[in-house]
Design a protein that fits this description.
111 residues; 98% helix; mainly alpha
Length: 111
């Protein structure tokens, strides 16, 4: 009969709509899962980059500290050397002055 045919057609139509809805739901779940996996990968990549940058900065900082320490050590050595040279020059000048004074004193005594 026409009514049973219409009911059968409506049932098939409803079944097709339910299948389409199920397919759409599965596609949406797959899209969400793909998006979550991509976001997880991006977070991991970002964390790796942060770690790499931190390690590079730490190494550069250590190198800068080593350069600073070496420069300070060299500056100290240069300062000590300059003090030694100044002391030596001062002693030489004092010795020369003493010799001049003694010679002058002896000359004065001779006169």
């Amino acid at each position: 009969s026409l009514e049973s045919l219409r009911l059968e057609l409506a049932a098939e139509h409803e079944k097709a709509l339910m299948q389409q809805a199920e397919a759409a739901r599965e596609a949406a779940e797959q899209a969400v899962a793909k998006h979550e996996a991509e976001m997880k990968q991006l977070r991991e990549d970002f964390q790796t980059q942060i770690t790499t940058v931190r390690e590079e900065l730490s190494a550069e900082h250590e190198a800068a500290l080593a350069l600073r320490d070496a420069a300070a050590e060299q500056l100290t050595k240069d300062h000590e050397l300059a003090l030694q040279e100044l002391k030596s020059a001062s002693e030489t000048a004092a010795g020369g002055l003493r010799a001049e004074l003694e010679a002058g004193f002896e000359q004065a005594l001779m006169e």
